[in-house]
Each structure stands twice: as structure tokens, then as C-alpha cells.
Amino acid sequence: MDSRLAARLGFDADARLLIVNCDDLGSSHAANLATHRALAEGIATDATLMVPCPWAPEAVQLCRGFPLGIHLTLTSEYEGCRWRGLTQGASLHDARGFLPRSAAEALDRLTPEDARAECLAQIETALSWGVDVTHLDAHMGVMQDRADLFEVYLDLAAQFGLPVRMASAEDCARQGFGARERATARGILFNEQMLYAWPTPAGPTLRAALPRLAPGVTEIFAHPALDGEELRGCSPASAALRIDDAQSLLDPSLAEDIAQHGVRRIGFRALRDAQRRGG
């Protein structure tokens, strides 16, 4: 099936377009270094910044000039490193004063008013740091997993003229609140397909999907980080996966596979610019 979005972006309607996003930028020095390398030397086309995290300012300095979106962050799940929100909403924080450890806990307690204030503060903070924000996505899916929070997600995307990461069509159907239809009705662009790798490495997932990649815009997200004491101290449970993702994004053979299958890599900036042009 042809893609109207591909044509809108200036490609043939049957073009197969791939966004390779690095999630969790700013969560650690190890993530910052690996993401910068993936953007500068590898196949990554985008990264999303976790603004409340302690290494976010360094991430902005290190990755200045590269396309950065906002990884709207309402959880603090790392074992050895916790962070607080930028705002003080009562539903945002756990008993220890940190953002909740899990998406389930966040979804159970979070009010849309507190979510709106916090996410707005994250976007405005990134803009104040000089980030040319390309898109919004939702760390651990929180802003996409409840109908009222999803409406806030779209409100912010519309307010700032930004595209969003969208869950797969199958997941949207299971959610049952018409996520794709609601975004389309508001003129908000999004990836048409989603390749989910987590909690397995992104490289093999992408390589296996390339022969059957559908026309239009597909996103895959990875979680690159460099090996070392910091990573293994912050998040030992996912360290091996993050190290593997960092290596895969720099693998020349994966870049060759993408090209050999006729897949073109693009970034969310192309969607943002098309959305702002309208039509």
C-alpha cells in the first residue's frame, strides 16, 4: 500500500523510509557518548532527550546541531540513579520524592493536570537550552497509554507544531481510544509503522524487518550506552542491551543492509517541517 505521508515528504508514495531514534539521551554520560557517536558516525537519525535527568545539560552541549526531540519523562526507573520532575505536582512523585519507578505506578497516580504542567516544563526547558525540538515521544509510553494523557500529548504537539511518536496500529487498536485518528484530525504527523525491539537488542530486530518493511515512515528506537562502571551502576539490568544497541548503531554491515534493501533513512525534522507547512 502506498504512503500518503511519504509523498507529502517529497518521496515516491511507495518509498520505504526509516527513522532510527536513540532514546534516553541525558540519562547518563554513557548514553550521551554513545548517542553522539550513533548520530555522528552511525545510522541514527534522531535522539530524544530526558530533560529532568542529571546528564541532560551535557547531552544538549554534546549533541548540539543534531536533531533532538523530547522524551517526555514521568518515571525514574533506574536502579542506581533517580531523578525528580521539574514541577511539584502531588501526583508526579513517589513517597521518596522521585518520579515513580514504573509506568504502571505513574499511570495509576498521575493526573492530566500535573502531567501537562510537567511535560510543558520539559519542552520549555529544552527550548531555553537552545534545542531545536524535532518531535515528542513518551518515555516508557506513559503519555500514550491513557486516553486523557494522550490528549495532553496531542495538545502539546499542536501547541509547539511538533510530530509525535505513535504506537503501532495494532497497539493503538488494543488501546481503543482512536489514537491515530485523533492525531490525524488535529493535523499532527506521526510514524506510520513502529518496530519494537525493547527489551531485546535493536540491531537484530531491524535487520530481520528490512526485507518486509512497509512503504511509508517506520520508526525503530534503540537505547545506546557505552560500557563502563557508570552504566552498570545506574542500570545493571539493561546494561548489556544498551551496550549491544550502541554497537549495532555503528555497525557498517547494518548500514549496508539498509541501503541494499532500498530503505531511506530520514529524521523527525522532515515530519515537523511538513506539519508546519500544512496542506
From TrEMBL:
Keyword Thylakoid: no
InterPro entries associated with the record: Glyco_hydro/deAcase_b/a-brl (IPR011330), YdjC-like (IPR006879)
UniProt keyword Signal present: no
Cofactor: Mg(2+)
Keywords: Carbohydrate metabolism, Hydrolase, Magnesium, Metal-binding
SUPFAM superfamilies per the UniProt record, alphabetical: Glycoside hydrolase/deacetylase
Protein name in the entry: ChbG/HpnK family deacetylase
Gene source species: Roseomonas alba
